[in-house]
């Protein structure tokens, strides 16, 4: 395929690096569970996830980084998303809620999509598996 414009070349490079490495060249997504006072500040949001227990240090078994949105990378946009997720007794994410994002709406879809594919070690109380809520922050940045 002959790429006739610099724009076509950049699109092809973006798609090729995303396919090979999971992220476009120069794009990084870091993530971590939220703990401490920041986690406590989100307590009022947890009621949306029924009576599930909050877990500060979840143990992921499978987690994929969100893919950096092409339009955001092209516009040199960086940002962050904070998300709550309900994990069922089998370790699957069943519900998510974005509780903060900056810039609003830019990285939300990529974050929710990735989080829904995650799997966690089930939490147990008194020998019985229980659903639980996790609180994560994803930071999207360019190198």
Structure in words:
- By secondary structure, this protein is an alpha+beta fold.
- It has a single domain (26-142), classed as TonB (TolA/TonB C-terminal domain, 2-Layer Sandwich).
- Helix content is 25%, strand content 35%.
- It is built from 4 helices and 9 strands; from the N terminus they run H-E-H-E-E-H-E-E-H-E-E-E-E.
- Strands 1, 2, 4, 5 and 9 form a 5-stranded mixed β-sheet that branches. A two-stranded antiparallel sheet has the order 3-6. Strands 7-8 form a two-stranded antiparallel ribbon.
- It starts with 5 loop residues before the first helix and ends with a strand.
- Mean pLDDT is 79; it is low at 5-21.
Q: What is the makeup of the main sheet?
A: 5 strands, mixed
> Helix share of residues?
25-40%
Cα radius of gyration in angstroms = 17 Å
- The average pLDDT score comes to 79
Q: Which geometry do the CA atoms define? A: elongated
The low-pLDDT segments are 5-21
Tally of strands: 9
Assign the CATH class: Alpha Beta
Q: Architecture, CATH level 2? A: 2-Layer Sandwich
Keywords:
5-stranded mixed beta sheet, alpha+beta, elongated, 9 strands, 143 residues
How is the secondary structure organized here?
Blueprint: H1 6-21, E1 27-33, H2 37-41, E2 53-54, E3 60-62, H3 70-74, E4 79-87, E5 93-102, H4 108-117, E6 119-120, E7 123-125, E8 128-130, E9 132-142
């Amino acid at each position: 395929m002959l790429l006739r414009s610099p724009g076509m070349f950049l699109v092809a490079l973006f798609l090729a690096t995303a396919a090979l490495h999971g992220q476009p060249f120069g794009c990084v997504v870091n993530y971590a569970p939220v703990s401490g006072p920041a986690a406590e500040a989100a307590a009022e949001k947890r009621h949306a996830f029924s009576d599930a227990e909050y877990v500060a240090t979840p143990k992921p078994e499978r987690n994929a980084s969100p893919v950096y949105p092409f339009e955001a990378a092209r516009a040199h946009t960086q940002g962050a998303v904070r998300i709550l997720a309900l994990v069922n007794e089998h370790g699957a994410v069943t519900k998510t809620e974005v509780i903060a994002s900056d810039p609003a709406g830019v990285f939300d879809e990529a974050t929710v999509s990735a989080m829904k594919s995650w799997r966690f070690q089930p939490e147990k109380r008194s020998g019985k598996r229980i659903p639980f809520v996790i609180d994560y922050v994803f930071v999207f940045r360019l190198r």
